[in-house]
Write a structure and sequence with these properties.
7-stranded mixed beta sheet; 2 domains; disordered C terminus; 11 strands; 4-stranded parallel beta sheet; alpha/beta; lyase
Length: 394
């Protein structure tokens, strides 16, 4: 008895042909795109410590999330989750949805982005430019559930970046962000970074970098900088202390693209060597500092990363270490004209500006450490060189 009847074989062959053509389109798009730049920025007062930005804003959709969206589409296609005409649905604070709308249009698939109502209008416009539809919800905690519902009703597929980001990316190679960073650093004075600093939206970037460094036998450590309103730091700190993670949801993050109300499945704590909690005022002051130093606008998540860089740099200098630090320039500031680059927004949010700017300027010049930042590590505190603690589970 045949395994399949002829109509089933025909349907299977048609689906395989469509999937193969879809993957070729995505790979061809990748081949048309150059790699992103690595930009040096000197820190006054830190001789022998070199800082670099991996500029992910130069992707076709303008952010780090372009890599993730490509990986998520390839993962869904390889798993047989996407078909011709499938409605693609994603829960996002904006940037991933912009990138997924780009790839959905590339494959001729309808796309729906489920986002908090507070998402920047610039991101909404970018999603719609790529042919996507925006479905806004009031509570950020509801975006995953609402996405799953919409996908079921449409007979489509919920991409679910917060679950699949860490496993969709090929962390061993395939020009992931880690491989790209280490390749571009090869001719620098300190080619193997002492630290790579990133922030967590899904946790996919920290997982990719941490896994790649271990896989290649490299001593590079990963610091994850978490914004003021986010659950990742508390989750990590509890595990580092041998305690159960908190279950209460954190408030919605004001730093778009990073921070989550709960620690998502894609956040792999064992891939992170240390974490630091960053007040929003300092994230945005560091954003403005980078804007002035590089002569271009960057987003708030880049500012969060820079606060992490400063924490690491002060620790290295205190121990007399030299070396390099690489961080991520996540996206451009053009998407935040209505918020981070609008004085009225700061007044409405009650975020102090002048004092925070002064703190970042002093920290970047090396004249004063950042006040109140308490790094937490699963190895004691490698930033401050404290005795090691037991490793937390992955």
């Amino acid at each position: 008895m045949p395994f399949e009847d002829p109509p089933s074989r025909l349907a299977c062959a048609t689906q395989h042909a469509w999937t193969a053509a879809a993957i070729r389109r995505i790979e061809a798009d990748f081949n048309r795109s150059a790699d992103t730049h690595l930009i040096p920025m000197s820190l006054p007062g830190f001789p022998g410590i070199d800082v670099y930005f991996k500029d992910e804003s130069s992707h076709p959709t303008g952010s780090l999330k372009h890599r993730l969206a490509r990986s998520l589409f390839l993962y869904a296609l390889a798993n047989g989750w996407l078909h011709a005409g499938s409605t693609v649905v994603e829960a996002s604070s904006g940037s991933t949805a912009v990138s997924e709308a780009y790839f959905a249009r590339l494959l001729g698939l309808p796309f729906v982005a489920v986002m908090p109502a507070s998402t920047s209008p610039e991101k909404i416009a970018a999603i719609e430019f790529h042919g996507g539809r925006c479905h806004l919800v009031r509570n950020a905690c509801d975006i995953a559930g609402e996405s799953a519902r919409l996908a079921r009703e449409a007979g489509g597929h919920f991409m679910d970046q917060f679950t699949y980001a860490e496993r969709a990316t090929d962390w061993r190679a395939n020009n992931n962000i880690a491989e790209s960073i280490f390749r571009q650093m090869e001719q620098e004075p300190h080619p193997v970074p002492a630290w790579i600093v990133c922030s967590a939206g899904t946790g996919g970037t920290s997982a990719t970098i941490g896994r790649y460094a271990r896989y290649r036998g490299l001593p590079t450590r990963v610091l994850c900088a978490d914004p003021e309103h986010s659950a990742f730091h508390a989750h990590y700190a509890a595990l580092a202390a041998g305690q159960p993670p908190p279950t209460a949801a954190a408030p919605a993050s004001r730093i778009e693209g990073i921070g989550r109300p709960t620690a998502e499945a894609s956040f792999i704590a064992g891939c992170v060597d240390a974490m630091v909690k960053v007040p929003d005022a300092l994230s945005l002051a560091a954003m403005r500092y980078v804007n002035a130093r590089l002569g271009r606008r960057v987003g708030g998540s880049t500012g969060t990363n820079v606060v992490g860089v400063l924490a690491v740099a002060h620790g290295m200098r205190a121990r007399g270490d030299t070396g390099s630090i690489v961080t991520i320039l996540c996206d451009g500031g053009e998407r935040y004209a209505h918020s981070y680059y609008d004085p009225d927004w700061y007044r409405a949010q009650g975020i102090e500006v002048d004092g925070a700017d002064a703190i970042i300027t002093r920290a970047a010049s090396g004249t004063a450490a950042l006040p109140g930042l308490q790094p937490v590590s699963r190895h004691g505190d490698p930033i401050r060189h404290d005795p090691p603690r037991p490793a937390i589970p992955a």
